[in-house]
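Hi R.,

As promised on Friday, here is the backbone we talked about, encoded as structure tokens. Could you run it through your design pipeline when you get a chance and send me back a sequence?
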């Protein structure tokens, strides 16, 4: 494949050489975009894995804590004079609020995932550059003048 060398004029190249040069540049651009997307998605996958591990640990610990602590807390409230059914209801509401807090934290972690933001931006810029290439300031293609 032919490449443009410093000081070499593009007008001196044949159409075949220009097409080969353009297709080589597009291939390089596509490879670079794929590498960027892979890198960004890998970072998001790490964040998702961390979030899911945290949710799993929280769920297991929460299950154990709810069982043990709710029984002891409800019995303690009953000893203070609450009816036993009301003591257990108060404890259940407390743990429901705790579960909501853990879900809120996990949601914030997931929201921070970028979703290949830089790849989308560079692809958009690349397509815009390809669309505007070959046009002069008036917006008409150079070859049709």
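Update: got your reply. Pasting your designed sequence below so it's all in one thread:
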């Amino acid at each position: 494949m032919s490449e443009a060398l410093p000081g070499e004029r593009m007008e001196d190249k044949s159409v075949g050489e220009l097409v080969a040069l353009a297709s080589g540049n597009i291939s390089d651009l596509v490879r670079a975009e794929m590498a960027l997307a892979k890198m960004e998605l890998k970072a998001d996958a790490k964040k998702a894995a961390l979030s899911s591990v945290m949710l799993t640990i929280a769920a297991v610990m929460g299950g154990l804590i709810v069982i043990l602590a709710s029984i002891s807390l409800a019995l303690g409230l009953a000893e203070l004079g609450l009816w036993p059914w009301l003591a257990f209801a108060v404890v259940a509401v407390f743990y429901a609020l705790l579960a909501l807090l853990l879900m809120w934290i996990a949601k914030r972690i997931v929201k921070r995932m970028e979703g290949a933001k830089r790849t989308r931006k560079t692809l958009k810029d690349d397509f815009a550059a390809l669309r505007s290439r070959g046009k002069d300031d008036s917006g008409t293609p150079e070859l049709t003048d």
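One thing I noticed while checking it: The two ends are 31 Å apart (CA to CA).

Thanks again,
M.
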